[in-house]
Amino acid sequence: MARFTQSTCLTPLALAAVLLLSGCASFSQDGGMRTVSTLADVRTGAPAALAGEGGEEKLAALLAQPLDADSAVRIALMNNHGMKVALAELGASEADLVQAGRLRNPGLSFGRSHGSHGNEIDRGVSFDLAGLLTMPMRLNIERGRFEQAKLQAASSAVQLAADTRRAYFNAVAAVQTEQFMQRALLSAEAGAELATRLRQAGNWSRLDQARQQVFYADAVSDLARARHQALVTREHLTRLLGLWGKQTSFTLPSRLPDLPAQAAEAGNIEAQAMEQRLDVQSAKLDAHATASALGLSKVTGFVNVLDVGYTNKSSSEAPRENGYEVSLELPLFDWGSARNAKAQALYEQSLQRTAGTAVRARSEVREAYSSYRTAYDLARHYRDEVVPLRKTISHEVLLRYNGMLASVFELLADAREQVASVNGAIETQRDFWIAQTTLQSAINGSGPAEKE
To answer: What residues does 114 pair with on adjacent strands?
Structure first.
């Protein structure tokens, strides 16, 4: 530590420079929100007001209509409480930036002593000269951290959008499955009732009747599970949307969107991820900020505090005394080498973290595309092959039954087989939309989401 005082006061020009530099830092008009909104809008596919920017009227208008994926994302971005937390952290980071551009308040000292030589009065005003000298470097560091905070807030928005889309498709698929299981239950109930009548008439065996009854019992269980799953997925979506009370009565469509005509080609998705992924950009900024901090550590390796001030000493029995005093801590035990070594290690750590983030991003985007393409091919296979074949079989069995060429046994067995095929088609269609969301998140955001 070094402390420097002198009896001569600061010149008016030097004092004006101190006051000017210490007052140059101020808060921005938007608090970084414009940058965050720009980064998020191009990556979410649903430009919307972020948390704190939307109003109750806009929210009510979105909830008044059946939700689609984009409107669900808009609601989440403006209403999710976790998003509001992320934006509050952005405000705290800007406050740190502004604080770094301001000097510590000046210190005022006053002392009075009485002795054999009369009364002595000491007066002093001190300023943080070290803070003034290192202000540009500290500003540069905090500016980098503020940019990181913007990227983190945008990343939170992109992640929330992806999580909301996944939750939305799960919820709609659950609604579609529940509706189908209700129809399957009616069919199973009719089959069980018919089996009971045939058994009473002596036309069916006890084994055949039991088969139809167990099909009905399974249908009851399946419908109960489907209803619960519809509730679970809806509540997950509700939490992400930040809704409560009457707001939770929003309407979901009865079926998933149709598959696109063609699957997207892979193209140069790895290069896109390196350019667009927010975690990659954040890691690069972190390495740059750590490098700046290393420079600051070396500058202040020997001198941590340097104060300059005006001192005045007077006595009641002697004229005013002028002079100066210098105190300096000798670096006999701590030369700052440990701090510099730690800063160097932290910089190397940030470099390796950046490289690791890039490697993980490339791998995740390749994996996400494979999942996307597989899900599309399976969904199209069910749409173009399995479901049409099942319809053909059902039509033919019904014709044979009407022509008395097939028994009621075959008709009821075909109804049981339809359940698995239709449920498979719904699941593959849902998996495709989720895989598409995950692919976009792997390219634009910060990779796959954590499970709730």
So the answer is: 119
User: Do 78 and 48 contact (CB within 8 A), yes or no?
Assistant: yes
pLDDT band at 209 (very low <50, low <70, confident <90, very high): confident
pLDDT in tens, 91-132: 787 787 777 777 777 777 777 777 666 677 776 777 676 777
Calpha distance 169→150 (Å, rounded): 29
Q: DSSP code of 73?
A: H
Q: Are strands 107-115 and 118-128 parallel, antiparallel or unpaired?
A: antiparallel
Chain centroid to Cα 440, Å, comes to: 14
Q: CB of 429 within 8 A of CB of 380? A: no
Q: Are 238 and 248 in contact (CB under 8 A)?
A: yes
Per-position DSSP letters for 287-344, written without gaps between them? HHHHHHHHHHHHHTSS-S--EEEEEEEEETTEEEE--EEEEE---SS--SHHHHHHHH
Confirm if 398 and 408 have CB atoms less than 8 A apart: no
- The DSSP-derived string for 353-399 is HHHHHHHHHHHHHHHHHHHHHHHHHHHHHIIIIIHHHHHHHHHHHHH
In the numeric block, which tokens belong to residue 93? 């980071």
Contact 371, 435 (CB under 8 A): yes
- Other CB atoms within a 10 A radius of the CB of residue 328 amount to 12
CA distance 162 to 149: 20
- Return left, alpha or beta for 113; rule: phi > 0 is left, psi -120 to 50 is alpha, else beta: beta
Quote the crossing angle between the two packed helices 408-444 and 337-381, to the nearest 10°. 150
Mean pLDDT of 276-283: 83
- Residue 410, Cβ neighbours under 10 Å: how many? 14
Instruction: Provide the residue type at 452 as one letter.
Output: E
Report which residue type is found at 169.
F
- Is residue 234's pLDDT more than 80? yes
Contact 301, 119 (CB under 8 A): no
Q: How many whole angstroms separate alpha carbon 203 and alpha carbon 26?
A: 90
Residue 133 pLDDT greater than 80, yes or no: no
Residue 148 pLDDT more than 70?
yes
CA angle at 111 for the pair 108 and 115, rounded to the nearest 5°: 165
Stated pTM of the model: 0.76
Answer whether 418's CB lies under 8 Å from 162's CB. Answer: no
